[in-house]
From TrEMBL, chain A:
Domain Phosphatidylinositol N-acetylglucosaminyltransferase subunit H conserved: 89-158
Protein name per Swiss-Prot or TrEMBL: PIGH acetylglucosaminyltransferase
UniProt pathway: Glycolipid biosynthesis; glycosylphosphatidylinositol-anchor biosynthesis
GO molecular function: transferase activity
Source organism of the structure: Agelaius phoeniceus (Red-winged blackbird)
Single Gene Ontology BP annotation: GPI anchor biosynthetic process
Gene Ontology cellular component list: glycosylphosphatidylinositol-N-acetylglucosaminyltransferase (GPI-GnT) complex
Gene: Pigh
Domain of life of the organism encoding this protein: Eukaryota
Transmembrane segments: 62-82
Entry keyword Cell cycle: no
Signal peptide, first to last residue: none
Keyword Isomerase: no
TrEMBL record, chain B:
Pfam families in UniProt: Gpi1 (PF05024)
Domain of life: Eukaryota
A Gene Ontology molecular function term of the record: transferase activity
Record keywords: Membrane, Transferase, Transmembrane, Transmembrane helix
Protein name: PIGQ acetylglucosaminyltransferase
Record organism: Agelaius phoeniceus
One GO-annotated biological process of the protein: GPI anchor biosynthetic process
Designated gene of the protein: Pigq
GO cellular component terms given for this protein: endoplasmic reticulum; membrane
Taxonomic lineage: Eukaryota, Metazoa, Chordata, Craniata, Vertebrata
Coiled-coil boundaries: none
Length: 188, 573
């Protein structure tokens, strides 16, 4: 069963949160950011090509034009493959672990899987960024030596930066599954 | 509690039978390795499993039953499968059944001695057996040092599949009593070329070891240990590089089999690196010797050296005049300028003396490029060092003069103020001087102070030239280090067979149906390219920078000689 709700990100762009429950102990939460707009793409391309034509008018060398085309194409490919994140999703499988995926605009997916034994908790933290206070969801990893200490903090949804209302929904869904491992009999 | 069943995707279409694998009770998960088909004799199955357990040290046992019925579900078969649970007693007994071509299987568990009678949720995880067997799981880099036995639950699964290789050696054409289905049950594949190479590598390794022992014996002989020669060997970077490559060859040609993954990858990386190096070297050599380019190079070498010497002479004439409008002390200027000019004159005569032999020397030295591109680059760096030897000498003279002047000035400045450096206490103490001591000291101080700009200018100019040469040499050494330490085999493996180098796993949720267990697909998450380079970098013999920027600037200011490149074998001074 899937449901989708619209929210706003920290910078004001509209984002969508999609929740799917695959089974009693498996949930998938995906935050989708806005797609690449045609008008911003054409604006950037026209700016680069106008500059190239200006340079060509100055120095009469046609290499400038081919260089501009090459730079535009290369820049677009690099942007789509390494920079623009379309969708960030969180797959929580009780008793196996938590999987964090980022899907880029070119289709590339980068995934990290954290085993349940390493996860201490999932919390919402506050951070002071320039003049704002922003909230972010993060996974606390357990220190193998000291059960009370936290060895690492893994922040989630870094590029879409949802606001507190969206984060609370995600937090509640995660906690429902994480609580199951506390109620289940612990095996060493 | 949730029960996890790791099922190999190659057994999805296998005929009915019983499931064998390993039960990991701490994680409540069952790793299924193969399916044993009917008909079988339970005693023989137990015997076979006992043998497998003895060889692989993995506790393989019968975990449950698998029924793949093409027609309707047969009642008698399901009762028969339940009865099997009593013969091979295993807690819990897993029963998986597939109807027709349906994707959604039904799983049930039989627990006779269950403490909590509630329904257990079952998660079915499909995995690619061949890829998991061949893959090597890399722990995250910061926990690599600690004992990672219980750090990763997944490593237990990878371990189980990897160590059960002997189980996968029986295929369905074998005449044994047990019929198995696993990833290799259609026939074990092997390549003739790989087998031939393995056979040929043993005598090749022995021959190489013999040759290398001869070579290292010659290198260590007493003849080469006399003072001028040993000094020369330690200064030339070509000899360092050749020694480094010799070490590499010794590692490859050793007879011991690699103990673990790291050693195997290191051997493979060294081998591929050497191969590429020699191939590039031979390419360079063929390019140099075609159209007699090396002759042209030798012909242009003397004019270039002459040109550099002329430029230096012009520079000294400029310094002897009024450089940049500064007024120099005439007498000191003339002395230093003439001294350096005479030095350059000596150098030019020396180069002209050598000029008939240059072409022949260069021709034979160029042949050694076939030993590798790194050796050719080191030779280039050494040639640059030899050709700019006079710049190095000028730098040393200028630096020593300047250093003496600075020390003299600081000591006389202390005298000027009535203080003295106490060597015993390593601090500045006040001291009462005699009148004539003070007079001469002040005089000398004034002389040194007013001569400072001249010396400082010469020092500055020659230090800049020396730094230029050092930067060029440094770039060449950086390139040599890059070729030496890049793990090419690991990078090519990551490109072509990315499942062999795993950073972790990733799960994909497959289609679900209500009432059926959760279906997941486990795939291998390959290590990133940066991670591959960091894990499998080959160690090199040099490490820089030796000094931090602050201490470098301090040394330059005080006039101490700087040697920016440190080799691992050098002692700290």
């Amino acid at each position: 069963m899937a449901e989708e709700r619209r929210f706003l990100s920290a910078s004001g762009v509209p984002i969508a949160l999609r929740r799917r429950q695959h089974s009693a102990s498996c949930r998938e939460l995906a935050v989708r950011g806005p797609r690449l707009q045609l008008r911003s793409l054409s604006a950037a391309t026209s700016a680069v090509w106008l500059a190239a034509y200006g340079l060509f008018a100055l120095c009469e060398n046609s290499i400038v034009l081919s260089a501009a085309i090459f730079i535009t194409l290369l820049g677009l490919i690099i942007y789509l493959h390494f920079v623009k994140i379309d969708q960030e999703s969180l797959l929580v499988i009780g008793s196996l672990g938590i999987q964090v995926t980022s899907a880029y605009a070119s289709g590339k997916e980068s995934t990290t899987f954290i085993e349940m034994g390493q996860v201490k908790d999932v919390v919402i933290n506050e951070a002071i960024h320039m003049q704002k206070v922003i909230y972010y969801l993060c996974i606390l990893l357990q220190d193998p030596e000291d059960p009370q200490a936290v060895s690492e903090v893994v922040p989630l949804f870094q590029s879409s930066k949802p606001r507190l209302d969206c984060l609370i929904e995600v937090y509640k869904s995660c906690q429902e599954i994480l609580e199951q491992r506390k109620t289940a009999p612990q095996s060493s | 509690m949730v029960l996890k069943v790791f099922f190999p995707s190659c057994c999805s279409s296998a005929d009915s039978g019983i499931l064998i694998g390993r039960w990991i009770s701490e994680q409540n998960s069952a790793v299924i390795l193969a399916v044993v088909h009917f008909p079988f004799i339970p005693v023989q199955v137990k015997q076979y499993l006992g043998e497998v357990q003895r060889v692989t040290k993995v506790s393989v046992s019968v975990l449950g039953s698998w029924s793949n019925s093409k027609q309707e579900k047969e009642e008698s078969l399901s009762e028969f499968l339940e009865d099997l649970g009593t013969i091979f007693c295993h807690e819990p007994w897993i029963q998986i059944s597939k109807e027709g071509d349906s994707k959604f299987w039904s799983c049930s568990i039989l627990q006779k001695h269950s403490k909590n009678p509630q329904e257990e949720e079952i998660i079915l995880v499909y995995y690619d057996q061949r890829k998991v067997m061949l893959s090597h799981l890399h722990p995250p880099l910061d926990t690599a040092g600690q004992g990672a036995e219980d750090a990763s639950k997944l490593s237990a699964i990878f371990d189980t599949v990897a160590r059960s290789q002997i189980l996968f050696m029986t295929d369905r054409y074998d005449e044994g009593p047990i019929k198995l289905t696993h990833w290799q049950s259609d026939g074990v594949e092997a390549s003739i070329i790989v087998e031939l190479l393995k056979q040929a590598s043993v005598p090749a390794c022995m021959l190489l070891t013999f040759l290398l022992s001869l070579l290292s014996g010659i290198c260590r002989s007493r003849v080469l240990k006399f003072w001028p020669l040993s000094f020369l060997w330690s200064k030339l970077s070509t000899c360092e590089q050749l020694g480094h490559r010799l070490q590499h060859l010794q590692v490859i040609s050793s007879n011991k089999k690699a103990q673990n993954q790291n050693q195997l990858m290191r051997k493979a990386n060294i081998f591929v690196s050497l191969l590429i190096d020699v191939a590039l070297g031979i390419l360079l050599m063929s390019w140099l010797y075609r159209k007699n380019r090396i002759g042209h190079l030798a012909d242009t070498l003397i004019p270039v050296a002459d040109h550099v010497a002329e430029e230096l002479q012009d520079l000294l004439q400029w310094l002897m005049g009024a450089p940049a409008g500064l007024k120099m002390n005439r007498a000191l200027d003339q002395v230093l300028g003439r001294f350096f000019l005479y030095h350059i004159h000596l150098w030019i005569s020396y180069i002209h003396l050598l000029s008939p032999f240059i072409e022949m020397i260069l021709w034979y030295v160029g042949l050694s490029a076939c030993l590798g591109l790194t050796v050719a680059l080191c030779i280039l760096s050494d040639i640059i060092a030899l050709l700019t030897f006079h710049i190095y000498c000028f730098y040393v003279y200028g630096a020593r003069l300047y250093c003496l002047k600075i020390y003299g000035l600081s000591s006389l400045w202390r005298l000027f103020r009535g203080k003295k450096w106490n060597v015993l206490r390593q601090r500045v103490d006040s001291c009462s001087y005699d009148l004539d001591q003070l007079f001469i000291g002040t005089l000398l101080f004034t002389i040194l102070l007013f001569l400072l700009p001249t010396t400082a200018l010469y020092y500055l100019v020659f230090t800049l030239l020396r730094l230029l040469v050092v930067i060029v040499q440094g770039l060449i050494h950086l390139l040599v280090d890059l070729i030496d330490s890049l793990p090419l085999y690991s990078l090519i493996l990551r490109l072509c067979r990315s499942y062999r180098l795993a950073a972790g796993v990733k799960f994909r949720v497959l289609e679900q149906q209500d009432g059926k267990p959760l279906r997941l697909l486990m795939q291998i998450n390959p290590l990133s390219y940066g991670g591959v380079v960091q894990t499998y970098r080959l160690p090199t013999y040099s490490c820089y920078p030796r000094d931090s920027w602050a201490s470098l600037c301090k040394k330059l200011f005080l006039g101490e000689l700087i040697y920016p490149w440190k080799h691992k074998g050098d002692k700290q001074n």
